[in-house]
Amino acid sequence: MKEIEAIRKHPLYMEYDERLRDAEKGRKFCCHQMDHLLDVARIAYIIDLEHDLGIRKEVIYGAALLHDIGKARQYQEGIPHEQASAEIAGTILDDLPEDYYSREERQEILRAIFGHRRERDGMSRLERLLYVSDKRSRMCFACDSEPECDWSREKKNLEIEI
Ligand SMILES: [Fe+2]
C-alpha cells in the first residue's frame, strides 16, 4: 500500500517513531508502537467490513498509523498526544503526493486523530472507529500491569471480545 509506506518512511514519522521507542523503553503499561498501530488498523478494517462502513482501507490504515505518532511529545513536553499527533500528521499528509489522499480524506484523518481519545456525541465515523479500535486493541485480560493501570474498568478489555 503505497500511501502507508510513504507515511512510515516520511522523515518526520521516522524521527517521532524513534523518539517514541526511546521514551517507552522499559514501560510496563501499554506502548504505542508499530504493533499497536497495526492492531488498531486491522481491527478498524475488520469493523469497517463487518458494518459496511465503506471507509477506504488506505484512510483507515493512515489514521491508525498516525494516531499516536506524537506520544513522545506527551511524555517529554506534556502536550496531549492527540494534539501533537494531529499536528505531525498534518505535516506528513501535506507532503504526500496529492493523489494519495483527497483533501477531504486528509481532514477526516486529522479530525479522527484529534478526537480519538474521548468518546462523545457527534463523532465522525472514522473518529469513532479509531476510538473503538484503539480501545479494543488492548489485551488487558493478559496484562500483568492491569491492576495498576488507571483505565476505568469499563474501558478495559477483561475478556476476549469477538
Ligand atoms: Fe492508540
Give the domain tally.
1
Strand proportion: under 5%
Would you count the extended β strands for me? 0
Using the coordinates above, name the CATH class. Mainly Alpha
Q: Rounded to an integer, what's the Rg over CA atoms?
A: 15 Å
| Major pleated sheet | none
The helix-and-strand class reads: mainly alpha
Helix content: 55-70%
Quickly give the CATH architecture.
Orthogonal Bundle
Secondary structure tally, helices = 8
| Tertiary shape | globular
Bound molecules: fe (ii) ion
* Terminal CA distance: 27 Å
Low-confidence stretches: none
What is the CATH topology descriptor?
Hypothetical protein af1432
- How do the helices and strands follow one another from N- to C-terminus? HHHHHHHH
CATH superfamily: Hypothetical protein af1432
Mean pLDDT: 96
Topology:
Blueprint: H1 2-8, H2 11-23, H3 34-50, H4 57-66, H5 71-77, H6 81-95, H7 103-115, H8 125-136
Bound molecules: fe (ii) ion.
Fe (ii) ion binds next to helix 3.
How would you sum up this structure, described in words?
The radius of gyration is 15 Å and the shape is globular. It has one domain (about 1-150): Orthogonal Bundle (Hypothetical protein af1432). By secondary structure, the chain is mostly helical. The mean pLDDT is about 95. The longest helix is centred in the first third of the chain and has 17 residues, at about 35-50. Helix 1 (about 1-10) packs parallel to helix 4 (about 55-65), helix 3 crosses helix 8 (about 125-135) and helix 6 (about 80-95) runs antiparallel to helix 7 (about 105-115). About 35% of the residues are buried. The protein contains 8 helices and no strands. The protein has helices at about 1-10, 10-25, 35-50, 55-65, 70-75, 80-95, 105-115, 125-135. It starts with a helix and ends in a 26-residue tail after the last helix. Fe (ii) ion binds near residues 40 and 134.
